[in-house]
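Structure first, sequence second, as always.
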């Protein structure tokens, strides 16, 4: 069904056509051409990331991160259940067992106070997910990881151009992955990254990304022919996708500011309902700078959430719930999780509703969304 006011519309800057055409005209459309390098350079410089590897998706970035963690069968990885399936699947495919930890009631991020209790001698990595582009408690998680000799892999899919204590999300753990999927703030259709923040992992990363060969060394003239040296895959985005993406990364700031204006508009318009105890908006800790990836509301109950979503849909407005907790999915239950295993996750997932938030959302459309919420909740 087409919605009059959809949940999302991918942003287009207007330069995408020109850049894609340039890539085609230059005859450079495979990976690691000028546009791929330009995107990586912008991300490295803006976010102080030692090495950004452009990826076909964030999922691919996480899968490569799992390979770099050198997971052995039976190893465990700690992650939230309230996340996208790729956070878990990437490590599962590498042989790990997912250990789901509950989330904080304020940010819906991995509850750092519960992580240490979930560590066993088989734990290999902690995978915090920066939900809605709001940073997890990276200092605490980093300290725990150091103490127990674990790697930290940030699922920063939603965290491009967001900060924790002035450090860019995705630049803080040993590894980090961004997404440029259609639904994110900066889009390439499909696309992502893997940040290599721990330089000890860089050499192997280059090899795994290039089909398990040392071709990057060959390109740099460090060896005279390249060969098969490790496991690997083709973790390469097309130059066409990166040409498209460059047009978006050149607009990091305007896109952020527009999203911010919309999010602040929601916060302001819905404040009376929040004061009346009818809903709750996002919480952002003092030391985090968000990127306005999402504006969600938490309703009093699942029934209210469903009723409101239905009413909005009837008015042509698409407001959507988010993750079905992974531990309650058919896959997640295979590890013995059941209803009640992660109470905060289960409670919040049932009550959360995401509102339309995209660059082209007009003020009158936003008013309509707010009016719809108000009339339903105050009826
Ligand atoms: C979007 C998203 C992903 C997957 O990103 P793709 O680029 O579509 O592979 C992974 N994790 C989280 C938290 C996401 O929001």
């Amino acid at each position: 069904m087409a919605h009059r006011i959809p949940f999302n519309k991918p942003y287009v800057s207007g330069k995408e056509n020109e850049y894609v055409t340039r890539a085609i005209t230059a005859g450079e459309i495979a990976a690691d051409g000028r546009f791929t390098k330009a995107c990586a350079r912008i991300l490295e410089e803006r976010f102080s990331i030692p090495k950004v590897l452009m990826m076909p998706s964030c999922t691919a970035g996480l899968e490569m991160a799992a390979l770099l963690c050198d997971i052995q069968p039976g190893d465990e990885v700690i992650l939230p259940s309230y996340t996208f399936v790729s956070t878990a699947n990437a490590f599962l495919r590498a042989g790990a067992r997912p250990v789901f930890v509950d989330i904080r009631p304020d940010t819906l991020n991995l509850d750092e106070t519960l992580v240490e209790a979930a560590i066993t001698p088989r734990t290999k990595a902690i995978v915090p997910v920066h939900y809605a582009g709001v940073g997890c408690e990276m200092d605490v998680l980093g300290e725990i990881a150091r103490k127990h000799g674990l790697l930290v892999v940030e699922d920063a899919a939603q965290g491009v151009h967001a900060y924790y204590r002035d450090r860019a999300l995705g630049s803080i753990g040993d590894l980090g992955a961004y997404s440029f999927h259609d639904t994110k703030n900066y889009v390439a259709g499909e696309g992502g990254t893997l940040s290599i923040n721990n330089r000890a992992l860089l050499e192997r990363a280059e090899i795994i990304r290039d089909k398990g060969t040392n071709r990057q060394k060959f390109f740099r003239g460090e060896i005279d022919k390249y060969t098969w040296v490790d496991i690997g895959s083709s973790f390469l985005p097309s130059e066409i996708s990166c040409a498209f993406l460059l047009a978006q990364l050149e607009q990091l700031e305007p896109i952020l500011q527009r999203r911010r204006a919309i999010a602040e508009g929601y916060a302001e318009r819905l404040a009376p309902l929040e004061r009346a105890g009818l809903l709750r908006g996002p919480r952002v800790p003092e030391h985090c700078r968000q990127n306005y990836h999402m504006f969600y509301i938490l309703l009093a109950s699942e029934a209210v959430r469903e009723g409101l979503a239905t009413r909005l849909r009837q008015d042509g407005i698409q407001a959507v719930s988010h993750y079905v907790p992974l531990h309650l999915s058919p896959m997640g239950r295979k590890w013995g999780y059941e209803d009640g295993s992660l109470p905060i996750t289960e409670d919040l997932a049932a009550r959360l509703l995401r509102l339309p938030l995209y660059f082209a959302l007009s003020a009158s459309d936003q008013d309509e969304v707010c009016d719809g919420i108000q009339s339903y909740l105050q009826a």
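Margin note: The chain has two domains: 16-101+108-249, 252-377.
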